[in-house]
Amino acid sequence: MTKVKDERSERLRQYMDECREKEHSESQLIAILHKAQEIYGYLPREVMDEIAHYMNIPTAHIWGVATFYHYFNLEPVGKYIVSVCMGTACYVKGAGKVLETLKKELGVEVGQTTEDKMFTLQEARCLGACGLAPVIMVNEKIHGDLDAERTAELIKEYRNRGG
Amino acid sequence: MAEKYKRDDVVAARVITLCDGPGCMHKGSKELLSALKDGFREKGLSYRDVKVNLSGCLGMCARGPVMIVNPGYTIYGNVGKADLEEILEEHIIKGKPVARLVIEENHLYNKFFRVFGDVGFFGKQMRIALRNCGIIDPESIDDYLALRGYEALARVLSSMSPEEVVEEVKRSGLRGRGGAGFPTGLKWDFTRKAAGEKKYVICNADEGDPGAFMDRSAIEGDPHTVLEGIIIGGYAVGASRGIIYIRAEYPLAIRRLEKAIKDAREHGIIGENILGSDFSFDVEIKLGAGAFVCGEETALIHSIEGSRGMPRPRPPFPSVSGLFGEPTLINNVETWANIPVIIMDGADWFSSVGTEKSKGTKVFAVAGKVRNTGLVEVPMGTTLREIIFDIGGGIPEDKKFKAVQTGGPSGGCLPEEYLDTPIDYESLARAGSIMGSGGMIVIDEDSCMVGIARFFLEFTQNESCGKCTPCREGTKRMLEILTRITEGRGMEGDIEKLERLGKTIKKASLCGLGQSAPNPVLSTIKNFREEYEEHIKEKKCRSGECRNLLEYYITEDCVGCTACKKVCPAGAVTGSPRERHAIDIEKCIKCGQCLAACKFNAVKTA
Amino acid sequence: MKTINITVNNRDYKVEKGQTIMQALDGLGFKIPRLCYHPKLSIEGACRVCIVEVEGMRNFVASCSHPVEEGMDIKTNTGDLRQARRDIVELILDNHPEDCHTCERDGICELQRLAYAMGIRKRHFEGEKKHYEKDLSSPAVIRDPDKCILCGRCVRMCEEVQKVNALRYAHRGFNTVVMPAYNMPFSESVCTSCGQCINVCPTASFVEKNYTQELFEKLNDDKLVKVVQVAPSVRAAIGEAFGFPPGKAMEGEMAAALRRLGFDHVFDTQFAADLTIMEEANEFLERVQGKGKLPMITSCSSAWMKCLEQFYPDLIENVSTCKSPMSMMGSMLKTYFADKQGLSPENIFSVAVMCCTAKKYEAQRPELRVEGMDPTDLVVTTREVAWMIKSSGIDFYNIKPEQFDAPLGVSSGAGAIFGVTGGVMEAAIRTAYELYTGETLLDIELKDIRGFKSVKEGSITMDGKEIRVAVAHGLGNAAELLDIVRKDPDRYHFIEIMGCPGGCIGGGGQPYAGSNSIPLDEDVLKKRAEALYGLDRNRTIRRSHENRDVQRLYKEFLGRPLGSAAHKYLHTHYAPKEPRGIIPELSKSR
Questions:
Q1: CATH number, residue A156
Q2: Taking the CB of the first residue and of the last residue of chain C, which one, N or C, has fewer CB atoms within 10 A?
């Protein structure tokens, strides 16, 4: 078990050290997974193993938690995470069309990443920008008032920006 | 009464409040902020003379970027960089609002933010939970303190026993704003009386109803109010720790809360011996990770404990055995935000607002096919019609109102005859919907009611935790039936099957999510049964939304350009160049590509 | 005990306060249908089959979790309830393969029984069914998610009783699946192969890897000498599979039936248990005298061995190096017995009938090989052998009892009690005492370490030296006991651990619960235990070292206990194995 520790695993260790100090340390699991995803972009299996042993939480439990919450990515994601708001306001105003366009433009289904690792398509619960419906979020940025055409343009823009 | 919420002192100062909710950020408020800096330099203004605040989402996304400028509390919409010079010169320096940018007098937003003077008179809106949003700098504890912030906490700690606090909340008649409307004071009382070494107080900020974002706005705009409510709750029930469980998708709200907690700690408002009293209390933030069901109390507790957010049977209720098995008080954001006002202004005052059984105000996120979308806070008892037509401005393009959906995926769709229903827990329930957390979606004639029901059911089906049979399996079957109805494959007896399954799921599911999941379906069957029957028997969708039920045909306007023929993936279009084309209904897969390709408006549907 | 008044279906009753509605109704002669409920596991409240109506409550109430209250007015059988229960069970069926007639649990499936009782004669809601690959990777336990109805009994068993935590729910909603971490093959997970998930599974989502077909083929192979051994607990439970009441010891019937099945030699694992005691008692005494680590921990249970290597690598040195009785027997079959019979070992097909699924895993352990041969070629469980007997047209119900064969078929009473928690310890002490003191232990029934308490303690004085012993059954109880050992290594001298609740009698390969019983019913376990204690009491020889055939084996072949031949054939070694297991509750004490 003498793996060379890289900077990322060191950061996660430090965070887990803080968590271990807390009462009910096992309850910090979701926070740790958030941290791990922040560091690695997704939750690699070795990282979940590491968390299991360092925090004394069964691996199957971590897997159960990681697969329960949609926020966690179990596979590497693209440079741009495109989340389509599936809130009611967006639905009423045509989120379905936007999603269809995205699927067509990107050539992937929801939850998948394009082959060039540029885009990951996701559905999101209401993003709370109902006034702009329908909206999508690309990484942290909200884009609203979309229709099929504008959605396609937007993707082109991001694609042109490159990887 | 009105005097309480006059803000003359605030209104006199020179303040620029810029909305930095996601909507306005998208429309350029970030750029505005940096442009302001340049503008200040050019005009020789300093931040000492003119305060610049960021407000968090003001709920006016459609008109963003939104800027509120004092003196005069003028609300500007669609502000561009080019407008800044004028605003600074005319309004800030000369004190004259820039008329062309002002959001019109009758607009929802104006009513919303000018309501402080009107409380108890004629204003349709009234702000208690959101009283400081858009007025103060949410990142400034001093701003909050200046507006009687933490006054309620100070009063509680200096002159009220925990029992008295519980009693006050009980007398106020406040009921849970998260959905079910359980009397808040009673919940506090249970937790207070429960035996336990260590008690917890939780703020449920896992807002998740599609189309509802009031909790996010409340936290982004005024985090200290929520915090103050939580601390008071902690004192009342004898807890030493508070936890705010918030969606990870709300980064701004999280940041504001972190700042508020830090500032409060520095001011001795959180921590050991709060404000010099014997009471010690700490608050921490826990992030959700994208699971709607975690809004359910026991699922939320499991999530905080680091597990899958799956509900467990109650009893025992969290007030007896909650987080880590200890007595736990859980209220949602809006509920907490009401607490300081109840303490400051008294249960008598609070209970004077609203109806007999539903006291105070309720925040709604109005969205969908309505002119003014955004947040409104109205006294309980206001009618749906007042919100949709007087405040919301009615349906755009003069389309016909069809239904209003309240309560999100747990609620129901109410048709026109219920528009005069006063908003309170019992009336909405009687009408066949629920208050819920406050989503309000307006639906016009362009929307298919079966499709709407399907949309909500798909949502709950997706968010079902999978633990109990009726919800996990039952919603799946209901969704399958609804899908086939909207795709023209509905069968005789499907409506009855939906009703039968709906009844079983409602009555037998483990938690509130399942128990309410069939509501959108059952209420649309009740109120719009004829639409279901049309879909099934006549294979017709009157709104035109169910694409599979449309029949495509080509009119005389066709010039024979062959564009439609080229794009048709099914080879259903026939016709020679320069002659009118036709669509073979048998072959048509109803993809709509011919319609999109036609430049002569000759492809129609029926 | 305080009583309260309740009304059930318009009749008044007095019931004990503090019970759930289900418990109260059970006491009144009702038996509300149920599925996810199990008295040994935490309350899940998931299946919603056990709902009742309570006056004043808007929704149905799950009787498994809701307490009875004074004045409660309960209805158990209204039209609405019947329809709801029926619909719920239909919803389960709608997402369940309909291959009952080819299913391993056809006729002994809780879901099937329930569907019949609910009166599902017509289907209303059929639609898409889930589909996942079967996991066939493990030599012991097969996982078939398609048959899973998500009652969660296996998850709770694995987490709460066994504390192995190999299984959890993963994903959510309609896509929820019970699986090991990362959906990895079972064989690569921390699963110990104990098979308790099989025992509690109401359907065939977990079953043992079935070797009956292969065994039939071998039995028809005339070139082979087919030799079988039967574990003690098999005889204590196999009757249940044929409709006998629990607790009937069927030793002679077993031997007779195995002969009818076509085995050439029918031996008894209990003989090997006596042999194990000879080695283990001597090993213990050596350790007591300073050669080796104390406390010494027993090593007969294969699930416990896998658990040891993954969860407690730090305790490997404490564990006895003795092979399990099954493997000792197998070793003797392919050496001593082959020799004696003038057979080539390759022609011996060594079969073990075990109450255990983990023995299938054990049979594959390379560490146990003798002269390059697997001691055991094939393991079938009690359930499998019962099916084989039925399938071969053997009348087990009326068959006349016969004796096991010599020379490996005669056992002492000590060998019989190997199958029940505390039995190995009791057997070992009977022998160790005499070896150490030179005197015969008269009061040989060690009551302190009998019974089903989670952790049992006892002590015995040998020549003035106090020997402190402890016994745990089930891997969860073992975790509790081993936690004590880690904190206080000198507290005990000798520890017995069996991987399954109740010991081997509650093994993962035992007959499924009948229609009036529940899996791992404690009353049933008690009766099975009583059957083995009865066999012990009725033996004239009750101490392993008095077994004449064992004595002869040493004289003719092995030399002396712990001697070089004994070491070669009867002992083994353990090593830490991946994946490493975790027992979170115990982390704080470390």
A1: 3.40.30.10
A2: N
The CATH class for the domain spanning B550-605 reads: alpha beta
For C562-583, letters b (16+ CB in 10 Å) and e give beeebeebbbbebeeeebbbbb
Identify the bridge partners of residue C74 per DSSP, sorted by sequence position.
C8, C54
The model's confidence at residue B112, banded by pLDDT at 50, 70 and 90, is very low
Q: Which residues of B392-407 are buried (b: 16+ CB within 10 A; e: fewer)?
A: bbbbeeeeebbbbbbb
Other beta carbons less than 10 A from residue C27's beta carbon: 12
* C141 contacts C509 by C-beta, under 8 angstroms: no
Q: B: neighbours with 3+ CB pairs under 8 Å?
A: A, C
- Give percent of chain C with pLDDT exceeding 90: 95
| C283 belongs to the catalytic site | yes
pLDDT band at B340 (very low <50, low <70, confident <90, very high): very high
Helices (H) and strands (E) in chain C, counts: 20, 17
Which tens digit of pLDDT belongs to each residue from C392-440?
Answer: 999 999 999 999 998 999 999 999 999 999 999 999 999 999 999 999 9
Residues B504 and C59: their CA atoms lie apart, in Å, by 10
The phi, psi pair for B155, rounded to 5°, reads: -65, -45
Cα A21 versus chain centre, distance = 28
Of the pLDDT bands very low, low, confident and very high (cuts 50, 70, 90), residue A56 is very high
What's at C541, amino acid-wise? I
| C-beta separation of A102 from A123 below 8 A | no
ipTM for the predicted complex: 0.94
Helix A29-40 and helix A45-55: axis angle, to 10°? Answer: 140
pLDDT of residue B104: 62
Rounded distance between C-alpha atoms, residue B565 and residue C53, angstroms = 62
Helix (H) or strand (E) holding A102: helix A95-106
Start-to-end CA distance of chain C, whole Å, equals 40
DSSP, collapsed to helix, strand or coil, labels residue B574 as strand
Look at B131 and B471; give whichever has higher pLDDT.
Answer: B471
Query: Is C504 a catalytic site residue?
Result: yes
Architecture of domain B2-107: 3-Layer(aba) Sandwich (3.40)
**3-class DSSP state for residue C438?**
coil
Residue B422: exposed, middle, or buried by beta-carbon count in 10 A (0-12, 13-18, 19+)?
middle
Mention the CATH class of domain C141-208: alpha beta
- In Å, how far is B91's CA from the nearest CA of chain A? 27
Chain A contacts to B (CB-CB under 8 A): 24, 26-31, 33-34, 57, 61, 64-65, 68-72, 86-89, 91-93, 124-133, 135, 137, 140-144
C178 to chain A nearest CA, in Å? 9
A 69-108: CB under 8 A from C: none
Q: What angle do CA C203, C208, C213 make, to 5 degrees?
A: 115
What does the DSSP assignment read for C250-294? Answer: -HHHHHHHHHHHT-SEEEEHHHHHHHHHHHHHHHHHHHHTTSS-S
Domain covering C3-77 in this structure, CATH number: 3.10.20.740
- Integer Cα distance of B217 and B212 in angstroms: 10
DSSP C161: I
Neighbouring residues of A10: CB distance < 8 A, sequence distance ≥ 6: none
Active site residue C280: yes
Domains B361-444 and B449-538 share a fold: no
How many angstroms separate the CA atoms of C484 and C476, rounded? 13
pLDDT above 90 for C301? yes
Share of chain B above pLDDT 90, in %: 58
**Burial bucket for residue A101 (CB in 10 Å: 0-12, 13-18, 19+):** buried
Four-point Cα dihedral C267, C273, C276, C278, nearest 10 = -100
pTM confidence score: 0.91
* C481 membership: H or E segment, kind and range: helix C475-487
